[in-house]
Design goal:
There is one protein chain. The chain contains 9 helices and 6 strands, in the order αββαααββββααααα. The strands form 3 sheets. Strands 1-2 form a two-stranded antiparallel sheet. The termini are far apart.
């Protein structure tokens, strides 16, 4: 619930920041830079859903970043208002659409709501690799570099197959990358 309320706009869902956060922090996706001048999110118009408002707002900003990465993930949480309360309708009695699809590194996956998206993330190699990257970077106190790809692949495999944080940490601390300092790595 803190995630949902942190990314809320005075009681309304903040689909953009919810989508950006999942992309950056869970998928390690590379997003393009934001526009130099960001327009304010307009008030909901009568007969308009939050999804329609955000789609209209972001339609002209280059497309791929919002329409293919940020918005689909953010819209999965449309059933949750700005403080995290579940809702079936919004702006009076308008039905909420939280469905979407996302192109993970292993292929495009569709979802109907946040629960479906969470299941897709839990099965995603991309999410497990991102988790492994963040854990390894923290544990080794350095940035992860291209030469660390075999380590990340191995850690992601342990994470995906076992799901145990303890086993991922054990695999990390038993790796040469963790135990042996090489030239060029601090």
């Amino acid at each position: 619930m803190p995630f949902l309320s942190l990314y809320g706009l005075n009681g309304e869902a903040d689909s953009i920041h919810r989508g950006v956060t999942i992309n950056l922090d869970v998928l390690c996706a590379v997003l393009g830079p934001p526009a130099a001048v960001l327009p304010a999110v307009p008030a909901l118009a009568p007969g308009q859903t939050n999804r329609q408002r955000i789609s209209s707002l972001t339609a002209g900003c280059g497309g791929a970043c919002h329409n293919e990465q940020i918005n689909p993930i953010g819209f999965a949480f449309e059933h949750f208002d700005g403080i995290g309360r579940y809702q079936d309708t919004e702006n009076g009695s308008l039905a909420i659409d939280s469905s979407g699809s996302f192109d993970f590194v292993e292929g495009k996956q569709s979802f109907q709501n946040a629960g479906d998206l969470m299941r897709e993330l839990a099965d995603s190699t991309q999410a497990h690799t991102c988790y492994s990257k963040k854990l390894a970077s923290f544990a080794m106190q350095r940035d992860i570099v291209t030469q660390d790809k075999p380590l990340l692949d191995a850690l992601a495999k342990v994470s995906r197959e076992d799901g145990s944080v303890k086993r991922v940490i054990l695999a990390l601390v038993q790796s040469d990358a963790f135990r042996i300092r090489t030239a060029g790595n601090p």
